[in-house]
Structure formats: C-alpha cells, structure tokens
Design a protein that fits this description.
Region (Disordered): 1-57
Biased composition (Polar residues): 1-18
Number of strands: 3
Number of domains: 3
Biased composition (Low complexity): 19-36
C-alpha cells in the first residue's frame, strides 16, 4: 500500500487526537504515534510539551534535549527544597566536623557539672565525648539527633552508678547521715572502737599499701568491717598503744622480739623487708603480735 495518511479525529469526550499511519508493506502494517490530548486521557505531563514533536508528528530530538535540561534543573531545585525541609524537620544539618557536636551541646541541668572545668574527671568526660562525636559524625547525625543519644548515654551511666550527679551539699548531707547511722550500729563506744581499730591496722605487720587499702575499706564499708577489725584486735592484738616488754627474748634460733619490732618500725625498712620479718617470726612459731 506504501501510502501515508493523516487523519484528525474528533473524540466524543472532547479529546483531540492526531493519528499518523505509515504503511510499510502490502499487508498494511502500521506504526501509530499519538501527540496531544489532555489530562483526562491519563497521560503524563511531559507528553504534552510541544517541544517533543514536530508539526508533522515526528519526535523532535533537539526539543527533547532542551526539555530534559529543564527537567534536570527543576529536579535539582526540588532536591534542594526537600533537603531544606528534611533539615527543618530533623533539627538542622549535620556538623561539618566532629568537634562541633559538643561545642554547642546543652546537657540537662543535673549533668552540666560533668562538663564544667571544675569537674575532677573532666578528662574522662572529654574522652567519652570525643568518641561519641566521631560516631555521630560518621553516621551523619545532626545536632538534635546527637543530643538525644548523648542524653540517653548519660542517663545510662547514672543508672549504672558510673557518674554522680549530686551537688556537693547533697553529698555532704548524705555522708553525715551515713556516718551517724554507722555510729549507731557500733553503739555507745563507737568513737573508741573506731580509734582502736584504726590503730590496730596502722600498727599491724602489713605493708603500707595493704594498710592504706584496709583503712580506706573501713571508711567506705563502715560498721560491719570496723566490727570485724575490732574483733581481730581483741582476739590477737594487745591494747592500743601497748609496747612489747624489753625482756621478751627470742625463741631458739631467732632474734629478740624487740629487735624485730625496732627493725619493722624503722622508717627506712622497706615493705619487702617487713614481709620477710613476718615470715621469719612465723617460721619460729611466734604467733603473738609485735604490738
């Protein structure tokens, strides 16, 4: 058939359609292309731009390139608008450097003391903040998102007893209440019991570090440990401040107790030598204390 026929059809629904039929063989094979129409036809907006087709219904490559450039420009503008809206909804853009996260971080009131220059553990707090900031920055979090996580971390540390948010006044008040309770548990002679127990530890044949640890534990644990140490003192020690009689002689094969005691108490005697003295006396079967 080899002929080209252009027909303009008037549709019942008001749609104008230009149909171009190109016959390529004697069987009447057709290639149909439709241009035009309106939104009622269910077509996409880009199908209606006049730059896409020539007057005779052929695809216009130059016009399509122009339209594509316009669409890409509009797409970039929409992306920027979407990013601005996302930032408004999420609390702003992510900081450019990790250091910015905690430079503007406002901790809840009860945690603000942790970030003050007066905090004795400020180095540890700064180290933790630095590690968190690296994680925040690597994941592109904004200030608001990072602050929510920081607050949760502080709450977790407080619940675990890793940080103390009490004021100095609160600490002193609670300490005074605790001391009063420990004295009540020790009874009327609490002061004397504490003094004798401390003296017993200080004069014991122990190295300096062990003495410090035991005295610190007594102060921290309180009445239960003080009672235990006082019981040991009554069972194995002499009265606080008593001295060894000068005429106490050594058992066969050893030095006198006075010699052992004098060497042990000498400020120049090392802790290692003090332990050796204890071991020597034990080998000699001397169970009594030096003090």
């Amino acid at each position: 058939m080899g002929e080209t026929t252009t027909q303009t059809l008037e549709a019942n629904n008001g749609q104008n359609t230009t149909q171009s039929n190109v016959g390529g063989n004697e069987n009447g094979g057709q290639n149909n292309s439709q241009v035009g129409g309106n939104a009622g036809a269910g077509q996409s907006d880009f199908e209606f731009d006049s730059r896409l087709y020539t007057e005779n219904g052929q695809f216009n490559r130059d016009g399509a390139k122009e339209y594509l450039t316009e669409l890409q420009t509009e797409l970039e503008a929409q992306k920027m608008r979407a990013e601005v809206m996302r930032q408004k909804l999420s609390g702003g853009p992510a900081p450019k450097t990790p250091e910015e996260y905690f430079s503007s971080y406002q901790a809840p009131d009860k945690y603000k003391g942790l970030f003050s220059a007066e905090n004795q553990n400020k180095e540890a707090v700064a180290a933790l903040a630095g590690k968190l900031a690296q994680v925040y920055h690597a994941n592109g979090l904004n200030h608001s998102q990072a602050a929510d996580i920081s607050n949760a971390v502080l709450e977790t540390l407080e619940a675990a007893g890793a940080i103390d948010t009490r004021s100095e006044a609160e600490i002193q008040k609670q300490r005074a209440e605790w001391v009063a309770d420990q004295q009540k548990q020790l009874g009327e002679n609490a002061g004397e019991m504490i003094a004798q127990s401390s003296k017993f530890v200080q004069d014991a044949m122990l190295d300096s570090d062990t003495k410090k640890q035991l005295l610190s534990a007594m102060e921290y644990v309180g009445a239960p440990l003080i009672k235990l140490v006082h019981t040991l003192k009554r069972s194995f020690g002499q009265a606080a401040g008593a001295s060894i009689p000068a005429n106490v002689n050594a058992l066969p094969g050893g030095r006198t107790e006075r010699e052992y005691r004098d060497e042990y108490m000498d400020k120049n005697t090392s802790d290692e030598r003090r332990r050796e003295i204890v071991a020597e006396r034990a080998r000699l079967g001397r169970a009594e204390t030096l003090f």
